[in-house]
């Protein structure tokens, strides 16, 4: 199969509406043009400018379609009297006022599983890029520096201890991809699982044990800043972090201090406390690899996420039941 051709195993294409249009949706966030076209093939999408220009439209909105890096606060939910469903194109829903939506009997849906592989690929790719200094190596060759001196040595992944924070759908895909690299795996989470890897119920204890900490847990209040100065000190001067979870999981100011002062060796970050990343000290640090929250950002995966989001909307508006509601 050529790149950009997508086979969606086990999924029927979204059905055509029967007997008239589906209700209107409010779009919150910027979507790739191809993804927006998928939604527009079945739904009328309004944006916040449409509602400002024609406030009467507010009453016609029955659903919100969004992405996981945008917020759906309680105030927005309250402004839409006909709102029945919030559909996010992503698995994380920490930006949605979930309890408030539930109180108002508004269904919230996400797109689990279809993005696991893409996020896991990015996590492994960023880890290797960090250890082998790939961005620097590229710049080195382009600048002609290779003709002057050899490139500094990198660090091997083989033989390292890797700890996964959040061994869920994505965490397990990361673990499976790391096994062939001959690493020693462990994981931190609230529950011990039936897997062959060591479980830690203390994050500082796992950080002390490992060389690499991979974050793949949800964001939100329960995991806010669980990676802090203590955990970073335990990880130590040879330790590195890969964060494909949420920026909120890491105390970013503690992380900057640790990176700038040799408390840890490096970090590969796809997510940040504030996105897009503004003028952060992270941008000046040489021992960091930065990505603009692209865990699921492949043509194939974004298309599958949109298909699942659309299946949720179609099923909900037809039957009252969503396909993958947030539990
Ligand atoms: P999942 O299947 O629900 O897995 C979450 C894992 O985190 C579970 O193993 C859970 O284990 C653990 N966990 C939950 N709460 C925890 C806590 N308070 N402390 C420690 N561990 C906790 O979710 P998933 O589908 O793998 O997605 C995980 C997250 O990845 C998402 O929520 C999202 O934030 C992030 N994500 C990022 C991108 C990106 O573009 N970078 C894309 C997709 C998803 P226990 O229940 O045993 O604690």
Automatic annotation (TrEMBL):
Keywords: NAD, NADP, Oxidoreductase. The keyword Isomerase does not apply. The keyword Ion transport does not apply. InterPro entries: D-isomer_2-hydroxyacid_DH, D-isomer_2_OHA_DH_cat_dom, D-isomer_DH_NAD-bd, NAD(P)-bd_dom_sf. Transmembrane segments: none annotated. Its EC number is 1.1.1.215. Residues 124-295 form the D-isomer specific 2-hydroxyacid dehydrogenase NAD-binding domain. One of its GO terms (molecular function) is NAD binding. One of its GO terms (cellular component) is cytosol. Residues 57-326 form the D-isomer specific 2-hydroxyacid dehydrogenase catalytic domain. Belongs to the D-isomer specific 2-hydroxyacid dehydrogenase family. This is 2-ketogluconate reductase.
């Amino acid at each position: 199969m050529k790149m950009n051709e997508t086979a969606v195993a086990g999924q029927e294409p979204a059905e055509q509406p029967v007997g008239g249009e589906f209700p209107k949706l409010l779009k919150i966030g910027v979507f790739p043009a191809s993804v927006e076209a998928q939604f527009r093939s079945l739904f009328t999408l309004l944006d916040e400018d449409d509602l400002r220009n024609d406030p009467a439209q507010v009453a016609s909105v029955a659903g919100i379609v969004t992405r996981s890096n945008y917020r759906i606060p309680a105030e927005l939910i309250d402004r839409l009297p006909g709102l029945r469903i919030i559909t996010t194109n992503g698995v994380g829903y920490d930006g949605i006022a979930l309890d408030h939506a539930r109180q108002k009997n508004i269904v919230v849906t996400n797109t689990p599983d279809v993005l696991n592989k893409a996020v896991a690929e990015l996590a492994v790719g960023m880890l290797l890029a960090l250890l082998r200094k790939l961005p620097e190596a590229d710049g080195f060759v382009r600048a002609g520096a290779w003709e002057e001196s050899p490139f500094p040595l990198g660090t091997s992944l083989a033989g390292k201890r890797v700890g996964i924070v959040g061994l869920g759908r994505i965490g397990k895909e990361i673990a499976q991809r790391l096994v062939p690299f001959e690493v020693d795996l462990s994981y931190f989470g609230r529950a011990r699982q039936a897997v062959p890897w060591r479980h830690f119920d203390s994050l500082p204890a796992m950080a002390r044990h490992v060389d690499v900490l991979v974050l793949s847990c949800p964001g939100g209040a329960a995991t806010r800043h669980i990676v802090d100065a203590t955990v970073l000190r335990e990880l130590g001067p040879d330790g590195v972090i890969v964060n494909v979870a949420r920026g909120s999981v890491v105390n970013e100011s503690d992380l900057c201090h640790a990176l700038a002062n040799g408390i840890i060796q490096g970090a590969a970050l796809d997510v940040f406390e504030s996105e897009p990343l503004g003028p952060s000290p992270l941008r000046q640090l040489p021992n960091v690899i930065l990505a603009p929250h692209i865990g699921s950002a492949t043509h194939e995966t974004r298309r599958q996420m949109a298909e699942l989001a659309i299946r949720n909307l179609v099923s909900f508006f037809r039957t009252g039941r969503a396909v993958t509601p947030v539990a």
